[in-house]
Design a protein that fits this description.
Elements lengths: L1 H18 L4 H19 L9 H14 L4 H17 L2
Helix pairs in contact: 1-2, 1-4, 2-3, 3-4
Amino acid sequence: MERQQLREYLEQLNSTIGDLRAPDDDKNKLTGLIAEIELQLNEPKLVAGDPQTLVDQVENMITTFEQDHPRVAGILNNIMVTLSNMGV
């Protein structure tokens, strides 16, 4: 259930990136984060390092986007909570 919810949040974030008025660097960071989370979901054994860093990365992104892009920050917050609930 949580995996499906996480995938839905990732889809929401991905579709929001296309409409986002932000520098390409910020969009690329979000796209990279999505890819990293999807890799963790699909192949957790291939991801080196501490999975907790994914939650940390999402939390940092929330801080980056919360002022100018509250919708993105809200989706990121949902992703962070879901990852935490999954123990990732």
